[in-house]
TrEMBL record:
SUPFAM superfamilies: P-loop containing nucleoside triphosphate hydrolases (SSF52540). Keywords: ATP-binding, Cell membrane, Hydrolase, Membrane, Nucleotide-binding, Translocase, Transport. This is Energy-coupling factor transport system ATP-binding protein. PROSITE patterns: ABC_TRANSPORTER_1 (PS00211), ABC_TRANSPORTER_2 (PS50893). Residues 5-243 form the ABC transporter domain. Gene3D superfamilies: P-loop containing nucleotide triphosphate hydrolases (3.40.50.300). SMART domains: AAA. It comes from Anaerosolibacter carboniphilus. GO terms for molecular function: ATP binding; ATP hydrolysis activity; ATPase-coupled transmembrane transporter activity. It is an enzyme of class 3 (hydrolase). It is a peripheral membrane protein.
Length: 278
């Protein structure tokens, strides 16, 4: 599979309030495959959001290189194309919503790209449908719930037809039902429409259905693998101060009590199946 994003020995430095150099990313290398659902986890200050912002040229490397669809992010003339390829959804949907009517907000991005009006109409309809928000097209965004607003922010990115969507903690400000809505939307876009997803989160449960999980700590990638491989390493994750999915935590405790279970159980259904087999 072709890599849509390639990060090579990425270093990012910034000046602290005390005017000292701080290295937020330390020679990170990573490839994201076309169509992949990649989840990056780590607590605040681990470098995960800093890395995400390099993926659509919001930040530029202090050292190393980032390529999006083969384009070097540090070359200014590539920025426009890079942002059409890799769309970004942020933590607070209110910061991304610009219009007073939902469908006008979704049309904003394609209009800026110079898309013809007839094509914009098609894209807005398709984007609303893909996030399950067609019935709210004429509403004011201020009348929507947090989860609905975030789905509108995602629709605004979809209407620009990116190959990849980068979501930087998109559920951090949402209640459980809003989180569920947004996660189902992201999964469907990835599985049904083949859009590459890079999902940055500190909620471990959101990584269970990923193709691959990366754990960041102090500007380094410290673990990488599919969800079963990563979450089976409960002791390492705990040392990093991270939670593990609740089912994995329970599995670990049951194994500690002498019950014969595989380490890599991630879902309630898997747990029930294995317990019934005992």
């Amino acid at each position: 599979m072709d890599k849509i994003i390639e990060i090579k020995d990425l270093i990012y430095e910034y000046k602290s309030d005390e005017n000292e150099n701080v290295q937020a990313l330390k020679k990170v290398s990573l490839g994201v495959r076309q169509g992949e659902f990649l989840v990056v986890i780590g607590h605040n200050g681990s470098g995960k959001s800093t890395m995400a912002k390099h993926m659509n040229a919001l930040l530029l490397p202090s050292g190393g290189k980032v390529y999006v669809n083969g384009l070097d992010t540090s070359d200014e003339k590539n920025v426009w194309s890079i942002r059409q390829t890799a769309g970004m959804v942020f933590q607070n949907p209110d910061n991304q919503i610009v219009a007073t009517i939902v469908e006008e907000d979704i049309a904003f991005g394609p209009e800026n790209l110079g898309v013809p009006p007839k094509e914009i109409r098609i894209r807005v309809d398709e984007a609303l449908q893909s996030v399950g928000m067609s019935e709210h097209r004429r509403k004011g965004p201020h009348l929507l719930s947090g989860g609905q607003k975030q789905r509108i922010a995602i629709a605004g990115i979809i209407a620009m037809r990116p190959k990849c969507i980068i979501l930087d903690e998109p559920t951090a400000m949402l209640d459980p039902s809003g989180r569920k809505e947004v996660l189902e939307t992201i999964r469907r876009l990835n599985k049904d429409e083949g859009i590459t997803v890079v999902h940055i989160t500190h909620f471990m449960d959101e990584a269970v259905n990923a193709d691959r999980v990366i754990v960041m700590e102090e500007g380094n990638m410290v673990l990488e693998g599919n969800p079963k491989e990563v979450f089976a390493q409960v002791d390492i994750l705990k040392k990093l101060g991270l939670d593990v999915p609740q089912v994995t935590e329970l599995t670990s405790k049951l194994i500690g009590d002498g019950i014969d279970l595989p380490k890599d159980i991630l879902t309630v259904d898997e747990m029930v199946m294995h317990l019934c087999q005992l």
